[in-house]
Design goal:
Number of strands: 7
Strand content: 15-25%
Length: 261
């Protein structure tokens, strides 16, 4: 684990290192070669140049992503020190022993992880407050029905087909958003409906879709405890209340078990 952290940090430095002049003749030569490589068009690159370019691009993207991530958490990435560390690594003039570097890199990861946990806890608390306030107001709107579990739904279009049970497979089109309107998932955008067992999804879906008939389109307002709870996934932060527009296209009954002999 520690070795991989050090390796990743060292490799990541190349993305910024290539942009700066080096102090040693050997490093200057390396930079010149790199500059020549990057001046060549993609079509003119040899396979070895493409591989080297891909390695450098990956490092640069990592550094950029890491810097943005740390900035969002109030942590700065000292690019001067990062470049110096890479230069010293190439010249074998490290200011710390390899063991110390491993320890320092691990400490950096722990600081980042702690900041991430603190930010997640703050977001979770805010999400609970926002969700409770939203659902209280939403329940007052005409056409919104609140079930015993706390699930809220409204009928956008009523169908006339069959209704599923939890063990059925359903085919649906859907769009999911956060309370601020951020869309985090959409089968419409993917251009094809989703199909899955109804008892393998979040409980708000399992309960809500069973209220629908084929051809129906409902809007579900799902409390966090009926969604992902304290889990985070993609744009969904802990304790998020979710809104789904769901169109039930088809109820796919499970295949009958083959008779035993």
């Amino acid at each position: 684990m520690q070795k991989s952290l050090v390796a990743l940090s060292t490799l990541a430095a190349l993305g910024l290192f290539a942009c700066q002049p080096n102090t040693t003749d050997e490093a200057a030569s390396t930079t010149a070669d790199s500059a020549n490589t990057t001046s060549v068009s993609a079509e003119e690159m040899t396979d070895s140049q493409k591989q080297a370019y891909a390695m450098g691009a990956s490092m640069g993207l990592f550094v950029s992503s890491r810097a943005e991530q740390q900035e969002q958490l109030g942590l700065t990435l000292d690019q001067v020190a990062l470049k110096q560390g890479f230069q010293d690594g190439l010249a074998d003039t490290l200011k710390f022993t390899p063991e110390q570097i491993q320890q320092i890199a691990q400490q950096g990861e722990e600081v980042l992880r702690t900041k991430q946990q603190e930010a997640a806890a703050q977001a979770a608390e805010k999400n609970i407050e926002a969700g409770v306030a939203y659902l209280e107001e939403n329940a007052k709107r005409e056409g919104v029905v609140t079930t015993e579990s706390g699930l809220q739904y409204e009928v956008l279009t009523e169908g006339e087909g069959a209704s599923p049970v939890a063990t059925d497979v359903v085919k649906v089109h859907y769009r999911g958003t956060l309370l601020d309107g951020t869309e985090f998932d959409s089968s419409y955008k993917r251009g094809e409906p989703a199909e899955f067992p109804l008892n393998r999804v979040i409980s708000g879906w399992t309960e809500g879709v069973q209220l629908m008939k084929e051809g129906s389109k409902y809007r579900f307002h799902i409390p966090s405890e009926l969604a992902y709870g304290q889990r985070a996934t993609g744009a969904i932060t802990p304790n998020s209340t979710l809104i789904f527009d769901v169109e039930l296209l088809e109820v796919v009954k499970p295949e009958a078990e083959a008779p035993t002999e």
